[in-house]
Structure formats: structure tokens, C-alpha cells
Sequence to fold (446 residues):
Amino acid sequence: MILQNWWFTSLLPQNFPPIQPLRHDIKVDVLIVGGGMTGMSAAAAFLEKGFKVAVIERNVFGGSSTGRSAGFLTPDSELELSQLERRFGNEGAKKIWQVPVSGINLIVERVKKYDLQCDLIKQDSLFVGIGKDGVSAIKEEKEARSRVGFDSIVYDKSQLENVLGSKNYEAAVRYGNTYGISALQYVQNMKRILIDGGIQVYEATEAQRIKDHTVYTHAGSVTADKIIVAIDKIKPSLTRYSREVFHAQTFLSISEPLSDEDYKNLFPSGEQFQCWDSTLVYSYWRLTGTRRLLLGGGSAMTTFMAQWDNKEKVIDAVIKGFKARFPALKKLEFIQYWPGQIDTTRDLLPTVVRDAEAPHIHYAFGIVGLPWASFCGDFLARVILGTAEKDEMEYFSYFSDRRYFALPTSVQRLVGKPFLFSMNNFWAKYYQVDVKRQLKFNPNDF
Ligand SMILES: Cc1cc2nc3c(=O)[nH]c(=O)nc-3n(C[C@H](O)[C@H](O)[C@H](O)COP(=O)(O)OP(=O)(O)OC[C@H]3O[C@@H](n4cnc5c(N)ncnc54)[C@H](O)[C@@H]3O)c2cc1C
Fold:
């Protein structure tokens, strides 16, 4: 296996020329910093709205988490519906679930509208349970889905063997309207649509400093009435919000294309799924359009590590674990692997906030999941455009930086960032209850 991101390899045959960096000073109505799923989605919301808009991106569009991702488009990210229901109650969970559902719809609509080639494949989600705890997790998810009014199908062990070629899972819950995608190709295609629609795009252009309404880059500057910051791994020199961003590291690998026999051994019914298991540091897998298996996961040690890790042995262990559960695929070769640090917040929900000290600057950060990023970018743009629905403004109480967290960031100095994050993360997933902690809405917060 070589250490290389497969999406960049598969992008080569397509024609996505890099865009030249910004080399002068410009003025626009709206500047978007960051060309990942969030920034791209925000920029697309301004198409045909008559605003002068620019996007600056440090790398290339999708050059960070978006272009490293496995491309699962499912509302589940780090938080399952049952966990959201425990935390926010039935109505709250339903409301929040609408965020990634809308994010997926937005992506699918754009792929259709612009006829984008980005390996979009319909793949139902299959959340599979391991051991006794796994059976409880599946049961809880099914019940939460029913209470919130969403369909799903539960498979017991013997039924599951008909759809997934393993005897090593106890149960699973299945639901639809989920997809696989090459997120890198999607945002790169959308880059072209933005440029054609009159939006100024600059790649290889890093925001180094923000002062009042001006963002300075290495060779130019952008002065804007409104600024949306949708970047990852935020540096403290750029904003104080950097201390609110945490990271969860995961690894991905990609196999040789599956033979017909391999395919049958993985999905005996012929129908393919995107799958992940019920463990805390879960494994996840799905097929690409060329029938390569994307397999991801990590280890308890590396997930919360402050520093990036490239060690092949982590993904080797994930592959070994997968082959132990699917012995018929033990000869399948994996050819490339790559790690990635997912930006997140302490409680795994995104933060979308307007800077109280500089209200023309809006931030969207710590967004886990492509569907969430797709929605949050679009939503933030619509807040600026004044076209967000009134009831959407309730997202404020979930996405504000003033929402309740189990441990404050100040503890970081004593216990360190990884410990603070892992404790908050664990609490948010398994114990936190926020039903009675609704924040008072302040229109200036968004
Ligand atoms: C290995 C891996 C697998 C994943 N798999 C999935 C999955 O299957 N499904 C799913 O839903 N989610 C997945 N995720 C999570 C998902 O990729 C992210 O949640 C999502 O892409 C976040 O999008 P974003 O636009 O907020 O961030 P990013 O994609 O990180 O975009 C931020 C952009 O800002 C740019 N930038 C940073 N600093 C500056 C600066 N100073 N100036 C200008 N630009 C800057 C970066 O280069 C980057 O392009 C995965 C993540 C990883 C790492």
C-alpha cells in the first residue's frame, strides 16, 4: 500500500485545472474563505443573486477534509439519531436531523441540475451491530427512528447474512435516501460552475490575517462587506475561535476493484450498501463506482491524537479486522491509504456563529460530515442574503458557541486538548441531555 489519497489519483483523468492565486487587492460584497464543502456550498448560494463574491482557498477546492473523505452521504455522522434524541428530545432531534437531510438533498439537486460527474451512487445506509452492545445500539436507533417518524428496516443476524456476507454481526438497521460520492470531484465541478456564474475563485491563496473588513493573503488582499470563514485547522493568529476546534483522526484505504465473486461475497443479495459498525472507533466501508472497496477506521490512540499520524499499521489493523469479519475477502488487496483529521467541536455539532466583536464576519467550523457542511454553508449564505426561513433561525441554539459543553475550553491548559476533547465527545455521545438548556435567541448571534 502506498500513502496517497485515491481521490486525487482518480481525479487525474478529469480536467480540473488549478486556478491562479490572488496577486492584487480586490473589493467584493462577500468574501468566502475556504473552498471545502462548506465554503463551496456558501458560494453556490450566491449564484444569480447579483452579489460580487470571491472565494479564496489555501490549497485547491476540496484540498483538505472534503477531498480526503470517504464520500458517505448519510445524515449519520458522529451522532446517531438516538443520541440526538436523548440530548434534545424528540422535536429537537427531528429538527437537527433535517440539517444533514437538507444537505444531502442540496448536493443531489446540484449534481442533477448541472449534470456533474462525481461518482454519485445511491447506497442505502446499513448500521451494523457488534456484540451485545451492538444489538442494543441497533434497537435504540430503530426505536428512535420510529418515534421521530422515519422509516427503517431492522435485520436480525440470520436476515443480515442475506444482505451482508459476514456471520460476524449481530443485527443491523437499514435506511434509504443516502448516497456515495467523490466529494473532491463534486466541489471541483462546482468550482467551474461558480466561475462560470461570475464568482471570483482563487486557489493557492491562504488567508493569513484579518483586519476589519480586509483579509490579507501572501500576495494580495480582499476587502468585503461580509466575510464567511469556512476553513479547517484554524490558526490562533486568524481568530480566537481556533481554540474551539478539535480533531478526530481517521484513516482510509482503497482496494483493487472487486471481482464478481468478491462482490457477491460482500453483498450476497446484489444490492450494495454503505456500512459502519457500532463501536466507538468504528470501521466504515462502501464501494466506489468502479467497485473498489473504500474501507476506513482508526484506533482509540490515534483518533484523539493532537498531531497527525501517517502510520500504515493503524489502517493495517482496520483491514485485518475487516477480513476477519469477511473471511471470503481475505485475498482482497488494498493499494492506497491516507489519514485525515476531521475538524470537530467538543460536542460533535457544528458551530455557526457571527463574531460579536466583528459582526460582519461569520464563522462555520468543526462541521463533521459532508451533508452537514453542505447545509451549513448554504444556510449561512442565506442568513446573509436574508432568505433563511424564520424557523431555521432556531438552529442558533444548537450551533451557537455559547451552547452547553460538559467541560469548558479553559480546562485545556490543565488536562490538554486530546483529553478535553475525548471527555466531551464521550459525554455528548452517551450521556448529555440538553432538553432544558435552550439558549435565548439573539438575532446578532447568526
Ligand atoms: C479521512 C476522512 C474521511 C471522511 N469521510 C467522510 C464521509 O465518508 N462522509 C462524511 O459525511 N464526512 C466525512 N468526513 C468528514 C468531512 O470530510 C468533513 O466534515 C467536511 O468535508 C467538512 O467540510 P468543510 O468545508 O467544513 O472543511 P474542509 O473540507 O476542511 O474545507 C476547509 C477548506 O479551507 C481551506 N483553508 C484552510 N485554511 C485556510 C486559510 N487560512 N485560507 C484559505 N483557505 C483555507 C482548506 O484548504 C480547505 O479546503 C471525512 C473526513 C476525513 C478527514
